[in-house]
Amino acid sequence: MLASCQLFTGDCTTAGRPALVIRVTDAETGDPPEGESKITITDGTWTEVHEGLPDPILGQYAAAFERPGTYSVLIETPGYQNWNREGVIVRRTGSCDHLATVSLTAAIAPLSNSSARY
């Protein structure tokens, strides 16, 4: 009997979603920093590292695809102070159980003597 059936028309997809989207900017100018960044993301014993420049079109880093957790994020960029954020919680949510991506903007401060830290 079709009357008891419901067609699902929600926005559920099989596309993977990042747990974190990270944009790195120079705290003084708001522009992307000069040089490459090293981004270390941890959740307990799990670690993911990104080194280099962000996505050339979006200007950001995407990380921890389809992985809920409680993350620590460390950003190291030569000529800038390190940036650290602890306790970033990413959960699944909604009827489709999608990952609720967390967006972070790391405004990193230039070092006074511009010496590299990693």
How would you concisely characterize the structure shown here?
With 118 residues, the protein is mostly beta strands. The protein contains no helices and 9 strands. It is 0% helix and 47% strand.
Number of strands: 9
Strand content: over 45%
CATH class: Mainly Beta
Strand order, main sheet: write it out. Answer: 3-2-5-6
Total domain units: 1
For CATH, the homologous superfamily is named as Carboxypeptidase-like, regulatory domain
**On the 0-100 scale, what is the average pLDDT?**
87
Number of helices: 0
The CA-CA distance between the termini, in Å, is: 66 Å
H/E order of the elements? EEEEEEEEE
Give me the secondary-structure category. Answer: mainly beta
What is Rg? 18 Å
Low-confidence stretches: 1-9
Q: Which descriptor suits the 3D outline?
A: elongated
Structure description:
It is a single chain. The chain is mainly beta and 118 residues long. The chain has a single domain (16-108), classed as Carboxypeptidase-like, regulatory domain (Immunoglobulin-like), CATH 2.60.40. It is 0% helix and 47% strand. It has strands at residues 18-26, 37-43, 46-52, 61-65, 69-76, 83-90, 92-93, 98-99, 102-108. The strands form three sheets. A four-stranded antiparallel beta sheet has the order 3-2-5-6, with no helix packed on it. Strand 5 and strand 6 (83-90) form a beta hairpin.
